[in-house]
Amino acid sequence: MRAEGRRALQRAQSALSAGRPEEVLRVAEPWLELPDTRADAQHLTGLALQKLGRSSEARRFLRRALRARPDSACLHHNLGGVHRERGELAHAASSFRRAIACDPDHAEAWAALADTQRFADPEGFVAQIEARLAAGRVPADRRHHLHFAAARVLDRLGETDRAFAHYEEGNRLRARPYDFARLERIAAGSRRAYARGTHQARQARRRGPAAASRRPLFVVGMPRSGTSLVEQILASHAEVRGAGELPDLGCIFEQLGPVAGCEGAPPGVFETCLLYTSDA
Fold it and tell me: What is the SS3 assignment for 28?
């Protein structure tokens, strides 16, 4: 049973990476309450629900997983991401701090905290990040997160020269060779996929029941201006369903990857494709 559960959760992890959150829910469900698998199953379920825009349920499952693994920096970080998506910034910052307390070298948690909180002692925060960089324990492929975190805080302080130095080093560490021919192939596949209407069919299967009216209501605003709160207020009405707009395009792009013949496209490439194909 233990080996079977591990194999099932590996399949769920692969499905999550491939942008198939509904499959994650199906595969993980039998393992949610078994002692050897429940923490991982609840973690994966929470991440899948977040992908589907069901952030309240995602938060509940991640909290359940944390009860089993209270020292998991990864879980605290992912719960913080759900809180931030819901506009619960104080809770998000608390989760990111707990992730750092569990693992001081969790680079993504430092970066998320820099994006979420304004600091009483920003120079002290930057000093902590630079100490992590100097210690040399953060893997090379994660160090850019620390440089970008320091840069954002320094930029807000008006320390532009120091901020630029961190931005420059972060971009150097994250640099990837640019393959324009591959981008053209991905863009062509994306256009074919959109022409077939595949994404509409997939989205229709993914959606739950909605109100009788088909009229959409878009809540538009600048980042951190309260749009998530407005959506929550509206969705509390019996005849309004929050559609989870925020993660939808990401799910569509991930699901279109195999359809467009571009498995393994790097993160962000479809966003670039939208710009590339906007005049097509």
Answer: helix
